[in-house]
């Protein structure tokens, strides 16, 4: 499969998140061409500020391989990881990050901070940005537009 095909899997997860009232971010982790983890944001449902798609995918992948080092793995996520998730990616030793849309307001690959390729850290990974970026961005815009509209409607 291609980067686009795996990103479509992450987009499918993002749609599930949005339908559940979560910010529509989805992630999959691939090893040797096989998806070993797939999930989406669960912060609202789990009442857990750390239940971001990336962190949950890292946990699933670790369980799958029975280890915390995710060498040989690629994470596909629909939006640029936040600082917490970028740190988790560094700690997991994942080899490759592929994300869809950039988020210049607080995310941590290139838009605001550069965590995943920071030369001062003990691990750096390859990064591919902008895969299906417009589709990923549109999903976020639609979700937040809907949320803003619903808060303006009289009850």
Q: How would you portray this structure in words?
A:
The protein is α/β, with parallel strands linked by helices. The chain has five helices and five strands. The chain has helices at residues 3-19, 43-46, 53-65, 83-92, 133-152, and strands at residues 26-31, 34-40, 73-79, 96-101, 126-129. It has a five-stranded mixed beta sheet. Helix 1 (3-19) runs parallel beside helix 5. The termini are far apart.
Question: Top keywords for this entry?
Answer:
155 residues; alpha/beta; 5 helices; globular
TL;DR of this structure?
The chain has helices at residues 3-19, 43-46, 53-65, 83-92, 133-152, and strands at residues 26-31, 34-40, 73-79, 96-101, 126-129. With 155 residues, the chain is of the alpha/beta class.
